[in-house]
Write a structure and sequence with these properties.
The complex is a heterodimer of chains A (364) and B (423). Chain A is mainly α and 364 residues long. Chain A has 14 helices and 2 strands, in the order H-H-H-H-H-H-E-E-H-H-H-H-H-H-H-H. Chain A has one domain. The two termini of chain B are 35 Å apart. The chains are: A mainly alpha (364), B mainly alpha (423).
């Protein structure tokens, strides 16, 4: 890690300046292209209300689109926040998808068994945190490869949730349970477009809170600094007397808690868990990974890029209803195509220096 | 994410471990997964409803599913009940071999990429693309030739088409990784979703069988499918396909171990810097390995269409993910893939027998799939356990007896196990 100081001191610096060019400019390009594209589209829509642009801008400016974008971004953004904590601490958690699946199922099951939606929400969080704990022990204590263990977490949940659903409900889909009702802020929810922000499911408000708190933890607390150090320079953290393994355990467990909120919100929003094929989670955990990479490991950046994906997803749902001639099955794959395009544009992001590496403390 | 670097790290570590140790770890992981599976079946048996006299009793508690019966059915059932007489080659054993055949190709696909230090999670998508291409191309070919000549021409043609289209689809993440640094774990998973979406669109539109309610292509005529040789016809199994599988194992083994290309692949897998220093064209190796890996996935799709289904239908079973388990269980060694494919084939075919005999859902195999990967990925765990047993016999906490409780401790919430034994 730090044997050849001479070459090391030169390499990262070049890496970083490369990184600035490589990561920031495409990121900016995409951001500006999005803003610019939106502006052009809205202008064209205003000029020619009956054209395709008109339909599109109608969809974009509709309050329903914002509402469903917010709703769709909840599971992705929660998982992305969790992924940031884990990866910043040096543990790449590619099993976010699995955490979402297990919490989505458990939330519905516990709600069904107890009758309490919030109990179900808590149950989902606990299930996801337990699975994250298993992942943490396997990678941190038993030094399993993080990527393979993460894939295992995903596949275990992908098998376990439909298995449990089959045992309990006799099919891959659970029965339906009550959902969490929306909370409306009196006056503000009347505002035309942005009113959607103030008349949403409690999970949306929880998400806002989680984004703000995560930002605060990383920027203002010593725990946040420890997490960063544990991912960038575990040796230094160790020398400063902080146990690297403990920090990593805490970070991975946090990724379990956050993903658990996302998964529970996803299924309780619908009142049912559907477990056919890729289950109702349907790749959201992997999209979350791309969202935080694109958001450069910043909670707010991750939230904004999630809104980009979710906004596209919300638009495609609206477009399917409007019928614009593009077949439904093809509109449905747009989020996945966008993810690949963005990943290709952003390319190599600057991952935490020690991410993916097992850290062996001097003592033991 | 420098996933590649890490993969190479693991591969280097794996290469360091002796073959014996790897076999021991794989065996232990398999046994441990099955033990955890037994616990899961017991727990599931507590959660489902059944009448008191249907239940079995262990430790004074009633369970609706009997894990011993489950595992008896799982293994003996998958082999076609060789002990109880009345063994028929057309029975369940053919199903096991049929699954094995597909798992060989899926496993080889994942293994080849792994050897090059690449995670190909996209075997599933490559298989789906290959399967649809084969179904469409062979259907067209079947109008030109027929009879025995048809079989001799169309089967290899179908395999070729599957390989080409699977290979092209595999080349996409290869190019993205080599030239745009896009992480192949994510791109291959996204491409799985895209493959499902696009094939659904095609097979519900242009390529749809007008006479079928399902989203499927027009069924292939009998002569355009794998011929039944000796046995297995009733279970859609063909020895010819298995023979192709064995050929692929031998071919990939030769390619990796005895050719210049294989040398490039292996060195870029273990030591990318050294490989590049010695003149290996890294981007080309990445693209070539993923293309070849995709081609093997595509052949799995061709086999699925020409041996099992006789048509392409949406909802292709996730052999691609099974392939990850097979490859990891085999230590990414082509020869090991053959054995691992048979073992996992037994598990897959066995779960359908289990479903008939008991009510345990076949999704159980999906859980085992993940557990096996998890356990093989943590050799350190088995080393620690092994050390503990050999060092101090009296402190063999984690593995004494092999009764369900230790398994629950070590895997269900493996946190307990690690934590406890530490203090």
């Amino acid at each position: 890690m730090s044997d050849a100081t001479g070459s090391v001191s030169e390499e990262p610096r070049r890496d970083e300046s490369d990184g600035l060019l490589d990561t920031h400019s495409p990121r900016k390009i995409v951001a500006w292209a999005t803003v610019g594209g939106l502006a052009v589209l809205l202008a064209a829509g205003a000029l020619f209300p009956n054209s395709l642009a008109g339909t599109l801008s109608d969809v974009i400016t509709s309050r329903n689109t914002l509402a469903s974008a917010l709703r769709l971004s909840v599971p992705i953004a929660f998982a992305a926040l969790g992924g940031i904590f884990a990866e910043k601490s040096g543990v790449i958690n590619i099993g976010l998808e699995g955490l979402l699946i297990i919490s989505a199922f458990t939330a519905v099951y516990v709600t069904d068994a107890t009758g309490g939606v919030w109990l179900g929400f808590g149950g989902g969080i606990i299930a996801s945190t337990l699975l994250a704990a298993l992942f943490a022990v396997v990678t941190i204590r038993f030094r399993a490869d993080q990527i393979i263990a993460g894939l295992a977490v995903w596949l275990i949940a992908l098998g376990l949730a439909p298995f449990a659903s089959q045992v309990i409900y006799g099919g891959p889909n659970t029965s339906t349970v009550p959902t969490i009702g929306a909370i409306s802020v009196p006056v503000l929810s009347e505002v035309p477009f942005f009113g959607a922000l103030f008349s949403a499911s409690p999970s949306v408000y929880l998400l806002f809170l989680a984004v703000a708190l995560s930002w605060y933890v990383f920027e203002r607390t010593s725990f946040g600094r420890w997490i960063r150090a544990s991912g960038e320079n575990p040796k230094a953290l160790d020398t400063a007397g902080v146990n690297v393994a403990h920090v990593r355990y805490a970070a991975v467990l946090l990724s379990g808690v956050l993903s658990g909120m996302g998964g529970a919100a996803l299924s309780l929003d619908l009142g049912q868990f559907t477990g056919n094929g890729p289950t109702m989670v349907n790749g959201k955990g992997f999209i979350a990974i791309v969202a935080y990479l694109f958001g450069n490991y910043n909670p707010i950046g991750a939230f904004l890029s999630t809104m980009l994906f979710a906004g596209l997803d919300a638009m495609q749902t609206a477009l399917q209803l409007q019928g614009i001639g593009v077949p439904r099955q093809l509109i449905r794959i747009t989020p996945f195509v966008i993810v690949i395009v963005i990943l290709a544009l952003v390319g190599r992001t600057r991952t935490p220096e020690a991410a993916g590496e097992y850290y062996e403390s001097g003592e033991e | 994410m420098s996933v590649g670097d890490r993969a190479r790290d693991v591969l280097a570590r794996l290469a360091d471990a002796s073959a014996t140790e790897r076999i021991l770890i794989s065996t232990a992981a398999l046994l441990l997964s099955i033990l955890v599976g037994a616990v899961l079946v017991l727990v599931a048996g507590r959660m489902t409803a059944c009448t008191p006299n249907e239940a079995v009793y262990y430790f004074g508690t009633g369970f609706c599913y009997d894990p011993i019966l489950v595992f008896d059915r799982l293994f003996l059932g998958a082999l076609g009940d060789p002990l109880s007489g009345g063994w028929s080659p057309d029975g369940q054993f053919s199903v096991t071999l049929r699954e094995t055949t597909l798992l060989i190709f899926a496993g080889l696909s994942v293994a080849l990429a792994f050897r090059a230090g690449i995670f190909n999670i996209g075997t599933q998508g490559q298989m789906v693309v290959g399967a649809l291409a084969t179904a469409v191309a062979v259907l067209w070919g079947a109008t030109l030739v027929s009879g025995v000549l048809g079989t001799v021409v169309l089967v290899p043609f179908g395999i070729l088409v599957g390989a080409v289209f699977g290979g092209l689809y595999g080349a996409i993440p290869g190019l993205l990784k080599a030239y745009a640094d896009a992480n192949e774990v994510i791109t291959t998973i996204m491409l799985n979703f895209i493959a499902t979406g696009v094939t659904l669109y095609l097979v519900s539109g242009v390529f749809k069988d007008p006479e079928s309610a399902a989203n499927q292509t027009v069924p292939l005529p009998e002569y355009a499918q794998f011929p039944t040789v000796l046995f297995g016809g009733r279970q859609d199994f063909s020895l010819v396909a298995l023979f192709f599988g064995l050929l692929a194992i031998a071919g990939l083994y030769y390619l990796l171990e005895h050719t210049a290309f294989g040398y490039d692949v292996r060195t870029s897998g273990i030591q990318p810097e050294a490989a590049e220093y010695s003149g290996v064209d890294a981007p080309r190796t990445v693209v070539a390995s993923l293309t070849l890996s995709g081609a093997l996935g595509g052949v799995a799709g061709a086999m699925y269409v020409m041996m099992i289904l006789g048509t392409f239908q949406t909802g292709v079973p996730s052999y691609g993910f099974d392939g990850i388990t097979v490859s990891i269980l085999a230590g990414n060694n082509p020869l090991g893939v053959g054995i691992a494919a048979l073992l996992f084939g037994v598990l897959k075919s066995g779960t359908t027998v289990v479903q008939f005999a008991t009510d345990v859902p076949p999704q159980l195999v999906g859980v085992l799939r993940g557990l096996i990967i998890l356990f093989v990925a943590m050799p350190e765990f088995f080393r620690l356990v092994g050390k503990r047993i050999t060092d101090t016999g009296s402190r063999a906490v984690a593995t004494d007896g092999g009764r369900p409780e230790p398994a629950a401790g070590s895997a269900g919430t493996s946190g307990d196990d690690g934590g406890e034994s530490d203090e």
